[in-house]
Amino acid sequence: MKRSYSRLAQFALPVLLAVCAASASAHGNVVCTKAPKSEWKSHEELQKKLVAEGWVIRRMEATNSCYEVYAKDPKGKRVEAFFDPVTFARVEE
């Protein structure tokens, strides 16, 4: 029995690490704006806009060039979305 767990671990661990690395690199590639932070609108403004459109916000974060939003969109789908902090345009990953 130990042997089968060992083989499973040898296979599963590299696959898990590859998936995590791919996911992390995808987030690192999202560029929303090159504008300086002094030109960014507040995340409170974005939150008000999204709530008015029917979004249910769980969490918001500012990255180097985006507002990253964890929410349910107006259709009720759980999403992680990126927005340009100057225009509030949604940016695709």
UniProtKB/TrEMBL annotation:
Signal peptide: 1-26
InterPro entries assigned: PepSY
UniProt keyword terms in alphabetical order: Signal
Domain (PepSY) ranges: 12-92
Protein name as catalogued: PepSY domain-containing protein
Species this protein is from: Duganella fentianensis
